[in-house]
Amino acid sequence: MHFQALFAILPFVATLPFQASGAPVALINSRSAMKREVPQEKSHDKFLRATQDMLQLDNPQGIVDPVFGLLGNAAASAGQGSVTNTDCLQQATADQAFTNAKAAGDVGGMTAALVYRALERNTGGVGVASVLCTETPVNPEIAALSQHQDPASPDAATTNKAITLALAQQIASIGEDPLIALESGTFAPGDVGDATGKGNSCDDPDCIFEGGRLVEDATADEIDQAVAGITPATGATGTAAADAAEDPAGSAVTDSGTGGCPAVFTGGDISVGAGTDADTGATGDEAADTAAPPANNAVAAEGIDIGQCTDFSLTFAGGLDNRAADEFTFQPTDLVNFNHGSALNPSIITQFMCDTFVNACARSATTRDVCKTVAADLDAQLQAGQLARDQGFADAWLTSLESAFGIQSTNTGTGDGNAAGVADDTDDTDAGANGNVDADADAGNADDAGTAADHSTDVNAGDDAAADADAGADADTTLNAGATGTAEGENLQTFASALNGVAATPVLNVGGDRPFQVKGDTFVNAGAAFQRSCDQQFNGCANAANSGQGDASVSDCSAQKDQCSAATPAA
């Protein structure tokens, strides 16, 4: 596809520095010098950018940029460096980038290289298949893949589906979310009589995602079946985002390092339960107002030691790691002690966090094992449909881990999902400091019906939300059937804005050691509770925007979230 690609790239090619040797060219960030966009090649730009970052860590063949590997041979040869077989330029680029990412311990970079290898390569017209590379790369993960073919070419649907499933298997083998493989898909088939060669493609960076033009080659169930039984390798860490991080130059880490360990999926038989009471072992003694949170703020279970990793909560939000605002992923809230990029699959994050308890934190094998038991149970609930990949999973992770550890998470981490004012969880004045907030404020009686569009707020996925949709519902309505039943208490949330009909979730003062309740979850710290309320409002607002059920855009919802967070009452 795209016979005109040669002409589009010529102005760029003319400016490139070339060297007779195979050494890397001086132009490390060549993409910034491109004066015009090359048709289709930038449709999956996030993977090209991440692959370029990995490639330039060590580029002995002097490959100029991954974009050349997606062009026809005439244009591609201008950027192939010392690669001798232009038909194999895409493979050679992916192979070197994967090698570098693996050496750096960067799962995100490895994933980007794998996806890049599977992207469609341009040909001379619509319906023309590209030539396959017959050389053997260094990495078997790359060797297992080939590029997508023009969707209008013969048997393209079958071919591209097989490529996507093979890609999913390789991504799973390195411990990343295999569903990312679906993003390697191409466009809808074009007209083979199209003289322009453009087909249904687009030119702007990542336009295939942002313009909704991506045609997925397989279903999520087919991906799950393809990767069943695959055990991730243990040679890299998850320091980059799941979909090709913007900062993928992570450092290599071993089991004795401080940056954690790869995600290794394990099984388990114990049932912790998503709605387990997180108060087990809590002393409620948090009166000391110190500058730093204590390692333990409750009576820990026998053998449990979390060291400095006191915030083991998960953030579920849109826009993490520079993703689109409406792309919701998981990430550790504390990115200092649990340094991992975001992932679509929460199991990637939870297993990484479990390993971090033994690789860093207090280096406690018992803590890791208990954590993995919890993670395995939640994975089983995911597979059984009792949980979904949404806020409910993040809530279940926190409450289950708190119960198993006998320790309350401080919820004071440094991730993207933190409230600005939640720096000190040891101040017990939060429980009473907000007592003078007007419980009858409009926000307390705001219509919570909009949260029906928010699939991310159920603590127990599969249970119907029991939030009362009546605009006049009192704060003591049943907030989450199947979680904690009916809760009564004064509503402290006074934020009144409700774009797309979604109000901020009530924050109830129910008393006790964990006095602040948001739906089925309880918190020691008021700031964490208010942030959860604002996050849930954003999720519901954004979901409504994406489904065409509201007038406000996702960016409007994001701005409202900032306003909601800023309106959190001072302790």
Automatic annotation (TrEMBL):
User: What start and end residues bound the annotated signal peptide?
Assistant: 1-22
Keywords in UniProt for this one? Signal
Composition-biased stretches, type Low complexity, lie in 410-423, 431-454
Keyword Signal annotated: yes
Record's protein name: Uncharacterized protein
Q: Superkingdom, according to UniProt?
A: Eukaryota
Where is the region Disordered?
409-471
Q: Does the keyword Signal apply?
A: yes
